[in-house]
Amino acid sequence: MAISQEISYRLERLILDGGLAPEQKIPSERQLAASLRVSRSVIREALHELQGRGVIETRHGKGSFVSTMVPGSGDLSAQGPLMHLFEGHPRTLYDLLEVREQLEGQAAYLAAQRATGVDRHRITKAFRDLEETDPLSNARPDHGFHQAIVEASHNPILVHVLNSLKNMMLMTVQASVANLNPRAEMRKKIVLQHRQLYEAIISGRPASAQKVAMAHVRFVSKAMRDMEQEGSTLIRTPIEQEEVPGSHLHTHS
Question: How many CA atoms lie within 13 A of 57 on its CB side?
């Protein structure tokens, strides 16, 4: 890896860790060169790389600033800066799973309370599609099942927030499917968790639905962490370029 790439990676880590916040001005080339102990030409090249990926933006006469990671429109394209950070920094997978645990738990709770007959029909259809798809390539049906649950929450803010992250959430589902589903014991547990979640929502048990949804995401996160600690390299499948069907949102594996 070229020295400029190492520096750009370190700056990205600083952004991910909160050391540099969105819209915050980045220190000058001279300051960065001094603190990182490299030449200004290396700093300039690293900043150029980050600018090319949309992670930072240069404002004429004012300097360089950290980009807004999540656009105001709420649309995170597969090529957006946050997606690049996700693909380049392994820890971001677990950051996303932390968010999923909380938001999907709340969505499941509300869906169990508020689902209409039409919602239950959609959730059932999505669950059947998931059951009938090859578990080694079922990221989309998995995503669709959780999407149906979120939409049944009838909370437009929650739906919008998760919809704005749909491509990133789908990547976490793809990671789970690629890494865990090939392992029979993992696959069996995930299938059981999905069924328990489905039954809790359809039978109108909010607390149970929330508990199962959160436990499912924690299980996925821990299982992948354990794999890495055991020395396995996680498969990180790039986002499929086709758009997630409809204006839907997702989350899950």
Answer: 9
